[in-house]
Design goal:
4 strands, EC 1.1.1.298, NADH Oxidase, alpha+beta, 14% strand, oxidoreductase, 41% helix, 9 helices, 195 residues
Length: 195
């Protein structure tokens, strides 16, 4: 496998910023389907794919989210064209006979609920990270956020499914003339070990 061109790396990492303000440009439903179809291809442990995504695109759906948001996140989330609730299905292992048919993995999780919960949370977080990069690759700007009441979101949106929210990702197209400077990042020697 060869490395991506420098231009692609800049789009994914170097030039990407969390937007300060959103443009009015709509995110087409077909683009969200394309986005998920990329995310689903990325690896998870045992191909467990526990993440579930709720794409809030309608003003009514986003307004329903208002009461669960921290005060500082209300404007950013409600003005975004799309808010994605990254969640996980605690019963993800029921899909494993289909997703990993070569080995019987379902019982590993069904018989060890703490292990299942840990696996679901870790891998849904990973899948949310894939969604961020896939969205940038498709030309979308991204604002990941915590700062909301998870249990309220679960009650408001997932009562029928039993899913558990993890974090939010706002998607859209930033107003390019109002982008912020990147905040400092730790250097390699401050964050890494070579052992």
């Amino acid at each position: 496998m060869s490395s991506l061109p420098e231009e692609s790396l800049r789009q994914l990492f170097e030039d990407a910023r969390t937007p300060k303000f959103w443009s009015d440009k709509e995110v087409e439903p077909a683009l969200l389907i394309q986005l998920y179809n990329l995310v689903k291809l990325a690896p998870t442990s045992g191909n467990c794919q526990p993440a579930r995504f709720a794409f809030l695109t309608h003003v009514v759906s986003k307004e329903k989210l208002r009461s669960a948001l921290s005060g500082g996140n209300v404007d950013n989330a409600l003005n975004a064209p799309v808010v994605v609730i990254v969640a996980h299905d605690p019963l993800f292992y029921e899909e494993l006979p289909k997703l990993y048919p070569q080995t019987e993995l379902r019982s590993w999780y069904a018989e060890d609920i703490p292990f299942a919960e840990e696996t679901a949370f870790r891998n849904s977080t990973l899948q949310g990270g894939y969604l961020i990069l896939a969205a940038r690759a498709l030309g979308l700007d991204v604002w990941p956020m915590s700062g909301f009441d998870n249990s309220m979101v679960d009650t408001l949106f997932f009562e029928d499914q039993g899913w558990h929210s993890n974090f939010l990702i706002c998607l859209g197209y930033a107003k390019k003339d109002q982008q912020s400077e990147r905040l400092p990042r730790l250097e390699f020697q401050d964050a890494c070990l070579m052992l």
